[in-house]
Write a structure and sequence with these properties.
Elements (H helix, E strand, L loop, with lengths): L16 H35 L1 H14 L3 E6 L5 E4 L4 H4 L6 E5 L8 H15 L9 H11 L7 H6 L10 H8 L10 E3 L5 E3 L5 H20 L2 H36 L6 H5 L2 E5 L7 H20 L6 H19 L6 H6 L1 E5 L9 H29 E2 L2 E2 L2 H13 L1
Antiparallel strand pairs: 1-2, 1-3, 4-5, 6-7, 8-9
Helix pairs in contact: 1-9, 2-5, 2-9, 4-8, 9-11, 11-12, 14-15
């Protein structure tokens, strides 16, 4: 096929990288909006109804506060903050006010003994399931935890990294937790019952730092307790149900269905920025290329999002993955992304590029073009030889007929 006569009519101009970036950002913003709209409304409502997701969060928070390693912090109307002990939860918490769970070691207090007493309560009361102060609404759920705090079987308890109830004594707490005979000897005194108290005259900042480290260790132990891990595991599976289906739906809608509907594989962002996809061979992109390009892109984004599982870190790893993709696009010689290489596509400027849909349409265009040129030359030659000879018109009627045909061509 002779392409020489139409070279000037065919022009492929790659899209500028800045316009491609803007298009990608527009698509991403739309996708994030749709994702949160679906996950935080419909899917969360379904999860609450079908799996008790919100109830699970409440029970988890109640276990935290019942341990005394965490407290409710409530914002008051005057801008102040109230710390509510778990025993006072029923009468003091106001559901209309903003409240949250806060770690006992992170509260705004300079009283080491206050924090120490909460940690002591965790080891001597919570872990033994005795003397536990919980509101009535928590009792039913807490009984489930109480039965699993410490395995009554000594050997099995040691196997699970636990200690039998009788080991949680003041002596155990002072020696093993506060380490009054080694690291904590500078901060604590013990009485005849081996109960530890903070020494007089010690640097309160230093002792507070030491006690906070003890508290962080206790919180770590609580987090990895079997019953807490069981709730965490269940919550993670529910989060998969909440987040993964909307993610897949939005990706398919925005990056597969919309490009399949548009002629040149554009997303809404690309359509807005007047850029489109073209096959590497210079012809219009085929549907199978749109599908394959989407599959590769879907794998790229999914790997970056879920490399550490489903959770808040997914947004961080996802952003890193997108930056890596953009960097790969920048350093390639033709500014093509990995999914463009995989699908043999290029991103072009739609407004300044001229291309054919297929080799057949190109051939038809060339044939028609050559035929028109041939006819035009033929009529020009007839007009030259018949209409004028020596500058005089021979047949005016023939001249009109030929000029009319020229205009039609």
């Amino acid at each position: 096929m002779d392409r020489s006569k139409i070279e000037k009519m065919t022009s492929i101009n790659e899209a500028h990288i800045v316009r491609r970036l803007i298009a990608a950002i527009l698509d991403a913003l739309l996708g994030i909006f749709l994702f949160f709209l679906l996950s935080m409304t419909a899917m969360t409502a379904i999860a609450n109804k079908a799996f008790g997701y919100s109830d699970l969060h409440q029970v988890y928070a109640r276990y935290q506060t019942a341990s005394h390693l965490y407290m409710y912090q409530q914002a008051n109307n005057d801008g102040s903050v109230s710390l509510i002990e778990v025993k006072d939860y029923e009468k003091e918490i106001d559901p209309e006010k903003d409240s949250k769970i806060i770690s006992i070691v992170d509260i705004d207090t300079e009283t080491p003994s206050y924090v120490l007493e909460h940690i002591r309560y965790y080891y001597l009361s919570f872990l033994t399931g005795e003397n536990i102060e919980v509101p009535e609404s928590v009792t039913r759920e807490y009984d489930i935890v109480k039965d699993n705090l410490v395995d009554p079987n000594y050997d099995k308890a040691l196997e699970n990294g636990q200690l039998p109830k009788e080991f949680y004594t003041e002596e155990y707490f002072s020696k093993e937790i506060l380490k009054v005979e080694s690291d904590g000897q500078y901060y604590f005194d013990v009485d005849e019952n081996f109960k530890a108290s903070i020494k007089e005259g010690v640097d309160e900042t230093a002792v507070m730092k030491y006690i906070k480290n003890v508290g962080y260790s206790a919180q770590k132990g609580l987090y990895y307790a079997d019953y807490m891990q069981a709730m965490n595991k269940r919550a993670k599976w529910i989060q998969v149900f909440i987040f993964v289906p909307p993610y897949v739906l939005v990706m398919c809608l925005e990056y597969l269905l919309v490009p399949m509907l548009f002629k040149n594989g554009e997303t809404l962002g690309k359509k807005t920025m007047h850029i489109c996809l073209l096959a590497k061979d210079g012809y219009a992109i085929k549907k199978r290329q749109v599908i394959f390009r989407f599959l590769v892109f879907f794998v790229e984004i999914s790997l970056s999002l879920f490399v550490v599982g489903v959770g808040m870190m997914s947004f961080v790893t996802g952003a890193v993955g997108v930056l890596i993709l953009f960097a790969a696009t920048l350093i390639s010689k033709t500014n093509r992304s990995p999914h463009d290489y995989a699908a043999a596509t290029v991103v072009i400027d739609e407004r300044t590029s001229v291309f054919f849909e297929s080799p057949l349409s190109e051939k038809q265009h060339v044939d028609a073009f050559n035929e028109n040129i041939s006819s035009l030359n033929e009529y020009n030659e007839i007009g030259k030889n018949v209409i004028q000879v020596g500058g005089e018109i021979i047949d005016p009627e023939l001249k009109k007929e030929i000029e009319s045909k020229r205009k039609e061509k």
